[in-house]
Amino acid sequence: MAPSLFDYESHLEACAKQDEQAFKALYQQESAQMLGLAISMLGDRALAEDCLHDTFVQIWRHARRFQRALGSGRAWIYSILRYRALNQLRNHGRYTELDDEFIERLADDSPQATELFEQKSEEKLLNRCLQGIDRNRRHPILLAFYHGLTHEQIASRLTIPLGTIKSRIRAGLRALQECLQA
């Protein structure tokens, strides 16, 4: 079933009530896509499979924390995957420095980024919304999301005061949220 037709939010709410069928449907809907993303982030299938397993355990255990008003269910499960993958990279000493050009290409038109973002309609919208944010706000968001950097690390890397970075990220995320909800 296409992601736009699958009701992630209702399935997560059912998971919060321990509905195993809803959990199974959610797993069947997204596990292959999520595994592919985990492999690309971690560079190792075994680690990616562990990451995917841990992600779905967290989804099952914490589905009650999902709040429909704060964003899409699909974005919520992918944020858990991203967090688990970044933790694995840090814990296994496999954290790879990515250059700024790579981070920018993820929001631009590189073939690799285009392939990732164009696979699903939601991701196309995200890409369009990211492009609509000015670079001063977009770049710190991308460094945080794809690079896993803290606000302090971003401020240091870009040689910009910490308060400015926090303001830019906050404003950029607000603009992104408004665009995604429009």
TrEMBL record:
Keywords: DNA-binding, Sigma factor, Transcription, Transcription regulation
Molecular function terms from GO: DNA binding; sigma factor activity
Residues of the RNA polymerase sigma-70 region domain: 26-94, 129-178
InterPro entries, sorted: RNA_pol_sigma-70-like, RNA_pol_sigma-70_dom, RNA_pol_sigma70_r2, RNA_pol_sigma70_r4, RNA_pol_sigma_r2, RNA_pol_sigma_r3/r4-like, WH-like_DNA-bd_sf
Keyword Transcription regulation in record: yes
Signal sequence extent: none
Lineage: superkingdom: Bacteria
Family per similarity comment: Belongs to the sigma-70 factor family. ECF subfamily.
Name assigned to this protein: RNA polymerase sigma factor
Source organism (scientific name): Advenella faeciporci
